[in-house]
Structures are given as C-alpha cells and as structure tokens.
Automatic annotation (TrEMBL), chain A:
InterPro entries: CheY-like_superfamily, OmpR/PhoB-type_DNA-bd, Sig_transdc_resp-reg_C-effctor, Sig_transdc_resp-reg_receiver, WalR-like, WH-like_DNA-bd_sf. Gene3D superfamilies: 3.40.50.2300, 6.10.250.690, Winged helix-like DNA-binding domain superfamily/Winged helix DNA-binding domain. Residues 124-219 form the OmpR/PhoB-type domain. Signal peptide: none annotated. This is Response regulator. SUPFAM superfamilies: C-terminal effector domain of the bipartite response regulators, CheY-like. The lineage of its organism: Bacteria, Pseudomonadati, Pseudomonadota, Gammaproteobacteria, Oceanospirillales. It comes from the Bacteria. Transmembrane segments: none annotated. Residues 2-116 form the Response regulatory domain. It comes from Vreelandella halophila. One of its GO terms (cellular component) is protein-DNA complex. One of its GO terms (biological process) is regulation of DNA-templated transcription.
Length: 221, 446
C-alpha cells in the first residue's frame, strides 16, 4: 500500500518511514509543501500523513489544492497545536482525521488502518439537485451561492432523502422511517425542527411544505 | 449641528452652545421689553386722552356750552399737560395757543377717534390727538385733545437704554457663572488626566481618586483591568517558574544519559528516556493550556450554536458510524459572554469524550434558563460507575489516575468552567450513558 509522508523534521521523518515500512506500507517521504502538492496529484496513494507546519507553506493549503483537483485519498493530518479550531479547519479543508504531536507509533498505525478501512469502497459521491450539491462523504451541503454548510447526521440523512428525488412528496412518517433507527422514538415535531434548520441553510423555497401531506425538495432550476 | 463635534472637547461644546444662547436670550428679552414698553405707553396715553375729552365735555355741559368757560388759565394745562381745542357752533378755543396751528385743522377734520401726526414742521413734530364730536342744543360741538409724543418717546428711549445697560451687566454675570460652572465641573477631568499621567509614569498604581458619578464606572473598569493585568502577570510568572522547574530536571537527565558514550542504550533505558519526555510533554501541555484560557473577560463573546455545529460536524466525520445531534432553540448568531477559545475547549472536550464512548448517538443541548447558560452533552454509551462520577476530572488527580479515556478532557472542562464561576455536573443519562452538564453564569462577574 502506497503511503505519502509529508514531514519536514528529518529525524521524525526517517523514524516514521522506517516504522511505517515495517508495518507494510511503501512510503514516499517529502519535506516540502510544493513537492507534496505535486506528488499527491501525480501518484496514486492509498493514504497520506500530512504535517501542517512545512518550511515553504501550510499543509492545509496543500490539502485544499488536492481536494479542489479531485484527489480523494484519505488524509491524516499531524498538528502540534492541539486546539479545536485547528482540528475543525483541518477537517473542513478535507482531512479525514488528525493526530496531535507527540504521538505514539501504535496510535498512528491504528488511525491509518481505520482510515483505510473506512475509505474502502468509498466513491466520491455527490447528490446534485438543481444547483444544490450534497457531498455524501463530507456531509456538506453546497448551496447555489457556493457556500458550504456542514450538516449533522440527522440533517444529512433527511436532506439526502429529500434531495435524492427532487419534486417528490415525502410524508412525515416516511421521513421518520428513513432518518431514524428503530430504537429511537422521535416525534413529528423533531422532523419539523430539522426542516426549519435545513430551510435556514438552503433557503425558504428549497423545501416545500404540502399541508397535511409532507415535504418535497424544490430544485429551482 | 455639524459645527459642534461632540467628540472634540466637552468644554468647547458647552461654551459653543451656552455663550451664544445666553447672548441671544438676553437680546431677545431686551427687544421684547422695548416692544412692551412702547405698547404700554401708547395705551396709557390713549386712555388719558379719552378721559380728558370726557372731562372737557362735562365741563362744557356745566358751562352751558360756553367755550370761554374752559379758559381757566395755566391751571388746566399744568394739570393735564395736554393741549386741547374746542369748537361749539362757530366759536372755538385752543389751549395753549402755541398749538392752535396744529389743532385748528383737526377741528375741521371729518374723522373722529385717534389721529396720529408725525413729521409735521414746527416745534411739535410728533403728536397723538383724540377727536370727538357731539350735539349740544342743536349745535355741533367738537373736542380735540392732543399730546406731544416726542417728549414721551425720549423718556421711553432713556428707559430702554437703561434696560440695555442692566441686561449687559446681567449677561456679563451669566457668562461668568457659566464659565465658572464649566471650569468646576471639568476640574475632575483634569484631575483624572493628572492621575493617568502619574499612572503612566509609575508614580501611582491605581486610579484611586474621587470622581463624579459619571466617571465612576470608567475608573472602576480601568482599575479592574489593571487588577486583571496584574493577576495575569503573577499567574504567568508562576506558571513559567513551575514549568521551568519541572521540565529542566528531566531534560538534564535525558541529556546526561545520551552523552554517556560508554553506556549502551538498552530497551529499559530507552523506555525511561521516553517516560521523561512524556513528562515534559505533559507539563508543557498543562501549563500552555492554562495560559491559553482567557477566563471571564469584558468584551469577549462567542456564538455557541455555530461553534457547536462545526464541532458536531467534525466529530460526525471522525466517528462516521455515530450520530451527533444538536438540540437548541437559540439562533445561530446568538452570543454568550464566553471567550471563543474557552467555549471551544468546553464543547470540544465534552463532545469528544461523548463521541469516544457513545454506542450510536450523542446529543448536545444548548439552552438558557433561570440557572444560567446550560450546555448538556449525553451519550448512549456504558456510562461511568456512580462512585467515580464525583471525582471525574477533579483537580489533584494525576492524569494517569483518571478514569481511562474520560480524564484529561473533562479535567480541562472543569478548569475552564471554574474560571467563569460556573458549575460542572457529571451524571448518567436516561439511557444509562454518560451525561455532562455545564452551567455558566449569564453575566460575567468581573
């Protein structure tokens, strides 16, 4: 399995390269942002370990560049700053997981394993309805104005259901079935609250209410 | 009022507004006084003229229409100060005789009532006359009484000039009073400025001066800010001293071992070195985190709903098989007086903890009620034994003594919440999972 290691500390990079190789990866190691940006696009890696503080640029910019070029392999970012905002911006830029330095090699290997398993069979799938795009991997709704809105689990499932068949009417019962597990006992009010929230993101006209019947997604082409 | 810049100077604004206002009002009072004086004098003269006509008519009746009977010499003129002309039939009489050129034409006039003549040649240029006609035993009788207005006008003008002098003196006094009032009330500002200068030069530690009520909140806030800065300095010095103390020793140990050329590095030694480095990391992490917390501060706030959404989304990506839901009635833009980084630490740690332990779902609830600002995260995981709940994340416990997995994050949460005088309650949710409830005061106490 090919792995790209982007790390500028040579001592750490060499040690990691040895240990990752021993774990069965074939490792390409690079220390610069420009090199990483190019390699990531040219080669086909199974997984990437990306350090954020690089001598010639920020790892997040490299990641954004990859993602905007449709490079979809899972990326684990290494960061020395452990604050939450950093983690959020890392994941928003397209990372799949993060690990704070210092870390233990076993932890890194376990995370990489989990990432690879999670990404197996994963295809870059986007549901489009009109000018709305729902990124299934990232659970992000892109509205016509180009803005991205992160969604929580239920919001995402509800919207996926509605957006998969724009113009079709879904009753509240049908939506409840699609959205919730068996052991949960949500009410109709909960669905209404989620619809309100989704309308706030997508616009009032995007989700139409048919009184007494249900909801439908209006693609507005 | 574009010519008044309120931000420039209080003294300037007061002077610009009050001085012209005082002058204009005094001027207006003087003009009004003149107009009233004129009106009063006029109506007084008119009343007298009318009365005298009545008197003359009475006298004429008593004298059975004999015009000559009115000739009583100087007495009449001296008492009445007025000139008069009377004509009954073809006989007429004018007193005093110097007025005859003026009054005789008036006897021939067709109008009755008040007649004002100005600008006439001769000695008397401005006078007011009252003319009345009536029948007496078949003959037409005319009485005209007149008063020289120029004398009256002169005394009126004199009075008006005196009023002007008095007004000017009063205006001077008023301006003086205004100026003194401004000086007195702004003296406190000058005191404040002087105190600030002393503060800057280190001659003073606090603004402990008497100030008027308007400046008290300002001075209080400044002093509090100085207190906060002092405390922060003390705290960061202590933290650095502690850090340096606890980090230098393991660093020395590691270097010593590495510099011993003869001693081979066996596995046991390597593990000891690694443990020292972990200690250093732990100390660094703890102290850095402490100094990163802002704590309760005026002017700092964050929007909990949008922050929570981002964190929930992130955790949903990290744990794709679990659900992270938000329950709140608050709007995305709603703000809480909690510093953004601090709020992120609270939310991030309790959610991360819940995400780690949840079987399938995590619910975060944000609300405001009578107890304060409430953050509640519950999961459907295995929960924590009852006896451990109270000490979870408590101070004094070493990190490795904390319940596995729950410890560090919850210790951070306790640490931040304490800075805001808030409360942390750990208990079990309805589904038996773990629940963290944090209640923060609605208003920061400075």
């Amino acid at each position: 399995m090919r792995l790209l290691l982007v790390e500028d500390d040579s001592l750490l990079a060499e040690s990691l390269e040895r240990q990752l190789s021993a774990a069965g990866f074939s490792v390409d190691s690079i220390a610069t942002a420009s090199g990483a940006s190019q390699l990531g696009r040219q080669e086909d890696y199974r997984v990437v370990v990306l350090d954020l503080g690089l001598p010639d640029g920020n790892g997040l910019d490299v990641l954004r560049k990859w993602r905007s070029h449709g490079v979809t392999m899972p990326v684990l970012i290494l960061t020395a700053r452990g604050d939450w905002q950093d983690k959020v911006s890392g994941l928003k830029a397209g990372a799949d997981d993060y690990l704070a330095k210092p870390f233990q090699t076993e932890e890194l290997l376990a995370r990489l394993d989990a990432l690879i398993r999670r990404s197996e069979g994963r295809v870059d799938s986007v549901i489009a309805a009109g000018r709305f795009r729902l990124d299934e991997n990232r659970q992000v709704l892109e509205t016509p104005d180009g803005e991205e809105h992160p969604l929580t689990g239920t919001e995402f499932r509800l919207l996926r259901c509605l957006m998969s068949r724009p113009g079709q009417l879904f009753s509240k019962e049908k939506l409840l079935e699609q959205v919730y597990n068996l052991d949960e006992s949500p009410s109709h009010n909960a669905i209404e609250a989620y619809i309100r929230r989704l309308r706030k993101l997508a616009g009032q006209e995007a989700i139409v209410t048919r009184r007494g019947q249900g909801y439908m997604f209006n693609a507005m082409d | 009022m574009p010519w008044i810049d309120l931000n420039r100077s209080i003294r300037r604004t007061l002077l610009i507004v009050l001085l012209p206002a005082a002058i204009a009002l005094m001027g207006a009072a003087w003009v009004i006084h003149g107009a009233l004086l004129e009106r009063m004098a006029h109506s007084f003269v008119e009343d007298r003229l009318r009365e005298e006509v009545g008197f003359l008519r009475h006298r004429l009746n008593q004298a059975h229409g004999s015009v000559e009977a009115l000739n009583t010499g100087a007495y009449f003129e001296q008492v009445l100060h007025h000139a008069f002309a009377v004509r009954v039939g073809s006989r007429q009489y004018v007193s005093p005789s110097s007025w005859s050129s003026l009054l005789v034409p008036l006897l021939e006039e067709s109008r009755t009532g008040f007649i004002r003549r100005t600008g006439a040649d001769g000695e008397i240029s401005d006078y007011l006359a009252y003319r009345e006609t009536f029948e007496r035993q078949g003959r037409e009788a005319v009485i005209v009484v007149a008063e020289d207005l120029s004398r009256l006008g002169a005394s009126q003008r004199e009075l008006h000039i005196w009023t002007a002098v008095v007004s000017a003196v009063l205006l001077g006094l008023l301006v003086l009073v205004i100026w003194i009032a401004i000086r007195l009330s702004l003296a406190s500002v000058a005191r404040l400025q002087a105190a600030l200068k002393e503060l800057q030069q280190g001659e003073r530690e606090r603004l402990d001066i008497e100030t008027p009520a308007e400046f008290q909140p300002l001075v209080g806030q400044l002093n509090q800010l100085l207190d906060t800065l002092d405390q922060r300095l003390i705290r960061s010095r202590e933290a650095l001293a502690n850090l340096s103390h606890s980090v230098k020793t393991p660093i020395t140990a590691v270097r010593q071992v590495l510099e011993e050329r003869e001693q081979p590095l066996d596995w046991d030694m390597r593990q000891q070195l690694a443990r020292r480095l972990s200690d250093i990391d732990g100390q660094l992490e703890t102290e850095m985190r402490r100094s990163r917390f802002a704590g309760a501060q005026a002017g700092k706030g964050a929007a909990p709903v949008s922050q929570a959404r981002e964190l929930l989304w992130m955790l949903g990506r990290l744990y794709p098989e679990k659900d992270f839901e938000l329950e709140t009635a608050m709007a995305d833009e709603h703000r809480w007086p909690i510093e953004e980084y601090d709020l992120n630490e609270i939310l991030g740690n309790i959610l991360d903890n819940a995400g780690k332990w949840a079987a399938s779902s995590v619910t975060l609830s944000l609300r405001e009620d009578e107890t304060g600002l409430v953050i509640e995260a519950s999961d459907d995981g295995p929960g924590v034994p009852q006896e451990q709940l109270a000490t979870l994340g408590a101070r004094g416990q070493r990190l490795d003594e904390q319940a596995a997995g729950h410890g560090l994050g919850l210790a951070i949460v306790r640490d931040v919440v304490r800075r805001y005088d808030g409360r942390v309650v750990f208990d079990l949710s309805d589904s038996g999972g773990f629940r963290a409830r944090i209640v923060l005061p609605e208003r920061i106490s400075l």
